[in-house]
Structures are given as C-alpha cells and as structure tokens.
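B., you asked whether I could sanity-check this one before it goes into the benchmark set. Here's the sequence:
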Amino acid sequence: MMSPMSPMSPMSRSHGTRSVRAGRILALAAAGLLLAACSGPGGEQGGGDGAPQQQPSQDGPLRVAVVTHGTAGDAFWNVVKNGAEAAGRELDVQVEYNSDGDPGNQAKLIDNAVAQGVGGLVVSMANPGALRTSIQNAVSAGIPVITINSGDQQSAEFGALTHVGQNETIAGEAAGSRFAELGKTKLLCVIHEAGNIGQNQRCDGAREGFGGTVQTLQVDINNPTDVESRIRGAVQTDATIDAVLALNSQVATRAVAAIKSVDSKAEVATFDLNSDVVAALQAGEVLFAVDQQQYLQGYLPVSFLRLYRDNANVVGGGRPVLTGPDLVEQGEVDRIAEYVQRGTR
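And here's what the prediction gave me:
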C-alpha cells in the first residue's frame, strides 16, 4: 500500500528547495535540544518477560544501538553508519552500530542491546516478521525504538515511535514513471535479496508507475559474477527489454557491464548512489539514480531519540518521516558528487 503521506513527484521539486528543507529539519532538531533543561520522560512501558535486563538509563549520555540488515563494507550501509555516528558526535550520544544480513542474527543483536539496557534502539526491518518479537520486547522494556529503511508499514504495529526512510512503493512508482517518460516499453526489475520486503515493494511500485510490461529477475548480490551473467542472459534472450532497474548501486554497475557485453539497447537506472554510479551517471551509462538519502536514515533517528529523552518530542505525527525519493540525473550529479565521495550521500 502507498503511504498516506505521498510526497510531490521528486522531479517537480528543485534541488534548492530540498536543500533548504533538509537544513530546516536539522536546524529544528538542534533548536529542540536547546529547549531541554532536564531529562524528559523515556518509554513508559513496563519490563518484558524473560532474563533480567538492565533498565534504560535516563542520566548521562544517551546510549543508542543501531542494528541494521546491511553487510560489512556495503557502501550504502556505510553511509547510514556515518550519519548515525555524526549525530552521536554532535549531540553527545553514544552510538553502537552493528549489522547482520541474516534476520535471525539481526534479532539476536537486538536482544543483546535490550539485555544491556541501551537508552534507544534504531532498527532496519527488511524482514519484519523475524524481528517482531525482539522489537516488541525492547518496547516492553521501556526502550524507545525508531525503525529505518524498510518495514514502514509494520513500524507502528510493533510499537516504534516512528519510521525514517523512503516509502518503497512511492520510490518505485517514481522510477517507473521516469522510465515511461523516457519512452521505455519493457522493464526488467532486478531483485538481489530474497525475502527483502522492500525490494518487492520497489518493483511493485515500478510496475504501477511504468504502465508497460514489467518482469522481475532474482539474483544473489553475494555472487557478483552470477548477477552479471543473469542480467546478460535476460536482455540477450529478450531483445524487447529496453530498461533495467537495479535496486542497488553494486547491481547497477554489473547491469551496465552485462548490457555492454551483448550490445543490448536496454538502459539502466538504479536505486542508491555510490562513486561508481556517480561516474556512470556522468558518462551517460546510467539514466538516473533513486536516492533515498540514507545518511539521514542514520542521522535523524539518533537526533530524534535524543529529543525524545530530553524533551519528550515524537516526530512524524504517526506517519513515516520520508528521506526520499530524490531522482538524480546526469545534469545534476556533479553537484552532489563530492558528498558521495565523502560518505554523506
């Protein structure tokens, strides 16, 4: 389902307006901290069942555990980590970042943070069902939770304060609509993580926005050679495919190489930015990138949790705080290339 807080089309907003709005968000967060003269209320929930747990501390520096489903060294999640750690330095918050792509292991990381009595929890939910119990136990233990990136539809149900990220259906629609505007007629949407609900939502959204024929292709991001081989096989077998949507910047570079190798007419767009995608945009090898500005997915939750502890603020009004989508094309990529290089976009 689409979020009830559907934004304007990202192509209809100027980059200047986006920059001003981003600045206002961070300025408001900083202003809110100045209002906090004493420690405000934390979670009011009772303790959970099971092994004894440390109670979240309301004194001294706030301690926040960030637990994501990213893999070590992944360019996307490194930017999320950079955002969380930057907020921690600026706001005197102790940030502890951990990640694991296996849902069961991610749940264990959440359980460990709860047992240690952290003062706040930030969790990405690519597989919400696997994390439900762990997140609800955190809430029952009085630990405020903010979800990020994936799982926006389950966030409130699990008891989180808010969700920070992009609505994947809306982002997919934006990508599909842009392909349609460019005259494409058959789209291949490449899913690289089995069981990741957000990726299916992106492809479903692309189907809605595109209007033409859309088919999906399952690949394994942990096997880059196979990714390239499967995309090459798909465009070679079906010459009518003229658009390929990657859901990850690493997959995008493989898609470009696959298309080149068989002289296909298909053109690539992708979700997310990294230095390779920036170079491909500049060279005209990638049409556009759907940027969800994941630095904000690390930075904003840490600031929100600090505001919640010190001033009882809850952001979002019961709806997700959207960080994207922001479509980046060749004519505007130079403006943000330096930020990608330094790890903040």
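One thing to flag: The first helix runs from residue 15 to 34. Otherwise nothing jumped out at me.
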